[in-house]
Design brief:
The chain is mainly alpha-helical. It has 8 helices and 3 strands, in the order αααβααββααα. This is MarR family transcriptional regulator.
């Protein structure tokens, strides 16, 4: 029985020529991995990030959360709605600007965040396993530079 001809391995050539395409594909891969990780803890990636930021910096408006986390404003509304319904955050009128709401993490939200964060290091280790620690640091620095963080 004749064997199938080998498929050409075109993507490595394309990725070398077009770093934008390579980054888009890597981003899609990482987004799927991050979503699977967050889902195991009953959160979406956006929800996890919102809880993490609120825990780190304190109450914020949805607009600030949206801008800092680079999540579309309309998506942020549904993320905060879901977190509010789950009891992970509460929204209160912002005392400094009565037209906006301050989003605050709750004790229940901190517990869920701690649960999700407890597995982040193993998730990152697994996801970035092909890279050495030095390469991961270099990648982080380069992406940060690209994003002007």
């Amino acid at each position: 029985m004749p064997s199938k001809p080998a498929r050409p391995a075109y993507f490595p050539t394309l990725a070398a020529e077009r770093p934008d395409i390579a980054m888009c594909r890597a981003s899609a891969y990482l987004a799927r991995a991050a979503d699977a990780h967050a889902t195991r803890h009953g959160l979406g990636v956006g929800q996890h990030l919102v809880l993490k930021m609120l825990d780190a910096v304190g109450p914020c408006s949805q607009q600030v959360l949206s801008e800092e986390l680079r999540i579309d404003r309309s998506v942020m509304v549904s993320v905060c709605d879901d977190l509010d319904r789950s009891g992970f955050v509460r929204r209160e009128r912002n005392p400094d600007d009565r037209r906006s709401y301050a989003v605050t993490i709750t004790g229940k939200g901190r517990e869920r965040l701690a649960e999700a964060e407890s597995t982040v290091s193993s998730y990152l280790e697994e996801t970035f396993a092909p890279l050495t620690a030095s390469e991961r640091a270099q990648l982080t620095a380069l992406v940060g530079k690209l994003m002007q963080l």
